Amino acid sequence: MTHVVAISPHLDDAAFSVGGVLAAHARAGDRVTIVTCFTGNVAAPTGFALACQLDKGVDAEVDYMALRRAEDRAACSVIGAQAVHLPLLEAPHRGYGSAHALFGPRRNDDTMPATLTGALAAQVDTLAPDVLLGPLAIGDHVDHWLVRDALAAIGRPLLLWEDWPYLTRASDLPSAPATRTHRLDDEDRAARLAMCAAYTSQIGFQFGSLHALADAVAAVTAERLHAA
């Protein structure tokens, strides 16, 4: 049995980007694990961190990250994947104070790189994947780059997915051909849509509606992976 491990920056990135690949592996009888890095809680968030919750339509009194972790478990259950949640803080809780900052340079006082590299090295050693997947960081989100760089530092063979939906609007598209192209069949697409739809708090913000999400997934013909 092949063990496929996807290292997702946030609670949705792996499903959004390679849900079809992961579903196909699961249907083939492979073990699939999704490790999400930035799932930690901050009590009573304020400022931009709180705004990132409110703009998803989630009230301030709601434990936003607990909600997101529950969504992730529901998404993983679609294909029978194991969900692993690391209690690290995402960028808005580490001093990145605006949407612009999320897609800008890494802060000099951001101590997450060493912490994340150590945490992921331990996970990879424990999980012993046959196939290791991570983000290409299309769109330049600082957390996606942190994960890509941490995985590179670990030095294991690695395939990088094209971050979606950033892929649909980014200008920094990969110039090299993909190492692996997975053509989506109807079962892959249905599983990817069901996984994406499980992240109910994100649908309106990212796509506008469930119908628009379905249309966006329907337009995806393949998922491409690139050698690190």
Shape assignment: globular
Based on the coordinates given, report the CATH architecture: 3-Layer(aba) Sandwich
Number of continuous helical runs: 9
Lateral arrangement of strands in the main beta sheet:
3-2-1-4-5-7-6
Strand elements, count:
7
CATH class: Alpha Beta
CATH topology: Rossmann fold
- Helix-residue proportion: 40-55%
Topology of helices and strands:
Blueprint (H helix, E strand, L loop, with lengths): L2 E6 L4 H15 L3 E6 L10 H8 L9 H16 L2 E4 L13 H4 L9 H16 L3 E5 L6 H13 L4 E3 L18 E4 L2 H12 L2 H8 L2 H9 L3 E6 L1
Parallel strand pairs: 1-2, 1-4, 2-3, 4-5
Antiparallel strand pairs: 5-7, 6-7
Summarize the structure in words.
This protein has 228 residues and is α/β, with parallel strands linked by helices. Helix content is 44%, strand content 15%. A 7-stranded mixed beta sheet has the order 3-2-1-4-5-7-6, with helices on both faces. Helix 6 (142-154) links the parallel strand 4 and strand 5 (159-161). Helix 1 (13-27) packs across helix 7 (186-197), helix 7 (186-197) runs antiparallel to helix 9 and helix 8 (200-207) packs across helix 9. 40% of the residues are buried.
Summary, kept brief:
The chain has 228 residues and is an alpha/beta fold. It is built from 9 helices and 7 strands; from the N terminus they run βαβααβααβαββαααβ. It has helices spanning 13-27, 47-54, 64-79, 99-102, 112-127, 142-154, 186-197, 200-207, 210-218; strands at residues 3-8, 31-36, 82-85, 131-135, 159-161, 180-183, 222-227.
